[in-house]
Amino acid sequence: MTSPAPAAVPPQLNGPALPQALGSARAGGTPIAPGPAADEGLARRLRALACTAPLHDLDARKANLAGEYGGYAMAEVALAAIDLVTLNMDFDTGADHEQIVARLLPRVAAQEPHRSAAEHERVARWVLENLINVGSVDRGFRAVYGTFGTDGTYVRRDYDFKLIEEVPGHGGTVFLRTTDEAVNVLVGALDTDVTSAQIAAEVKLEVLISRGRLADAQLAAEQARYRTVQYAETLRKTLDATRRNVRAVDWLRTVPDMIAEALDHVADRYRHENAILTNIRKARDEAEEPENKRRAAELVDIVKDCIRRHTQLQSRLLEAGPLFRAEQDRQAFAPPAARAGLDLYGQLLAPVLPLPLEQAGRVTDAFFTHGTGLRTPVSVRVGDLVEMLLTPPAEREHLGAEMPEPDLIATPDDSRFSEEQLASAMELLDLPADAPRRLSGLLADARRRDPELPYLVALLAVHAASPSVGTAYRQGEQTLLFAVDDGTQLDDIEFGGADLIVGKALLDAAGMAADRAEAT
């Protein structure tokens, strides 16, 4: 994105302000606009500086966190997070968010070992979320820098980039992947050609191994592995763009040339890395110091991982041609895309509001008539009828699909009272029809039988305080338990309230009278 230089310099977003003195078109009346090559070199350095700005911004903003976080080196944790995501992502998948947080915890805890584990986890998550730039619209960073055009005019440019991005995976999962800018931050370069950088890194690795500088060789091997990951990421983005729109990728010249070059690159690197691996094993076997043996063993693992990644990259390169042809067939014969949707506010509501009611009603009636969907025709067309009659019936199972056997689990008996306690309570409440009793006496008798029984008796008595005579009579009940409050205070050590009069009544004429009363 480009825009003419405004009179006032806009604020720099997501990072410290880039040098603005370089943007002066003239100094003392003399043009100082550099040549195209020098200006492009300056732009590359400014973009490299912009990629590191979010990491420095972490240490600047850690003071805003609630608590004392001054002892944490946030930029160091951020570089470790980028490293972990880069090495844990594969060609098709990325790194797991929780796994990266778990692997960051030892490094965070080593900086402030006396702090709590919850604070260490908060720091790790805060750093990772800021590298993803959670909270922004597109979860990206932007830096503004200036260059000179061919006519000497100073032009401001927006540089948009990401460090770690979230990509969807299988089954609705979300993975983390590092971008080219993040890998460039790791290896200390920007916009470097992947193939030449890979060759240079491996030549440097071979020289260091032959000279016995295993500590420097390990760093060079890690940089070579980062370049391998970056090369695979370039191919993955090309294939993803092909799946979305095959016309957006130049499969006539650019991609075939890239695939042929990549296959040659993989073959050369495979031979080169196997030779390096042989030299490392020799250095490991001949080393006498334990530190050199350990370094050599780590180098063996790193180079083996590079060989594995190159093998995987080769398999993807061989699948690129068939994938292009399959996507070309799929997209060429795909149904046409749906028309653009209607802007209800801009195209309907805003123009209709100033109109008179009569004119606006015609517009809305026409819209809703056509926008409410298809209507059933009043008569069947002959063509539809012939097609329905000639369509063979669908085969169906006579009894339908087989139902799976349900996995039944016995429901545990979680009732408070047992059957014996319920029978004992009902026995106490089985009173003669002409001899009601007070609740206090029933509670005393229940307490002598069982300490838990008074509560059940009280529940049954309260339930009987509002009986439905008509319902009980219609269901065939001959007797009905009832309770009446006569205003006497309940004198009991466990319960308080009214001392109800509990008794039973025969449902004969009284029940039929209640039926008539309910009907009335």
From TrEMBL:
Stretches the record annotates as Disordered: 1-36
Residue spans of biased composition, Low complexity class: 25-36
Protein's UniProt name: Restriction endonuclease
